[in-house]
Design goal:
The protein has 166 residues and is mostly helical. The protein has one domain: lithium bound rotor ring of v- atpase (Four Helix Bundle (Hemerythrin (Met), subunit A), Up-down Bundle). 78% of the residues lie in helices and 0% in strands. The longest helix has 38 residues. The mean pLDDT is 92. Its main location: membrane.
């Protein structure tokens, strides 16, 4: 049997970083973009501020998805000497899946939230349509989280011998 590569943990840590960084980038963009719309609506219609804050909250949830994935990956990396290259690649790909899908959802939530909040201030009937579009945008990140969890928890078995026993 082959000896585990000590550099395999690098890929796992990159998966942790990618999950956290890209998810928080999506959350930050979605919060900032839709927050600008909330501020502009608050000037015209202060009564709609609490109703208009929903896109900001939905964008903030995206950062939580990245944290969940990062915690799951770091929990699977515990015995570093037994960490295989397959596990490193698996954790890198699951971190990228969650991070990039959350980034895409954050872009969609930010743009839809900004336009939807401004439109809702002028025509109240558009609120339900905005909510539906925001929910479908959020499901992009949920799909990534589900696939990322499934991939990261796959059991590869014992693929290599610990490198510190030689």
């Amino acid at each position: 049997m082959r000896v585990c590569d000590p550099n395999s943990a690098f890929f796992g840590f990159m998966g942790i970083a990618a999950s956290s960084i890209f998810s928080n980038l999506g959350a930050a963009f979605g919060t900032a973009k839709s927050g600008v719309g909330v501020c502009s609506v608050g000037v015209m219609r202060p009564d709609l501020i609490m109703k208009s804050i929903l896109p900001v909250v939905m964008a903030g949830v995206l950062g939580i998805y990245g944290i969940i994935m990062s915690i799951l990956i770091s929990g699977k990396m515990s015995p570093a000497a037994n960490y295989s290259t397959f596990a490193g690649y698996t954790h890198l790909s699951s971190g990228l899946i969650v991070g990039l899908s959350s980034l895409a959802a954050g872009l969609a939530i930010g743009i839809v939230g900004d336009a939807g909040v401004r439109a809702n201030a002028q025509q109240n009937r558009l609120f339900i349509g905005m909510i539906l579009i925001l929910v479908f945008s959020e499901t992009l990140a949920l799909y990534g989280l589900i696939i990322g969890i499934y991939i990261s928890l796959s059991d590869e078995g014992k693929l290599c011998e610990p490198y510190n026993t030689l």
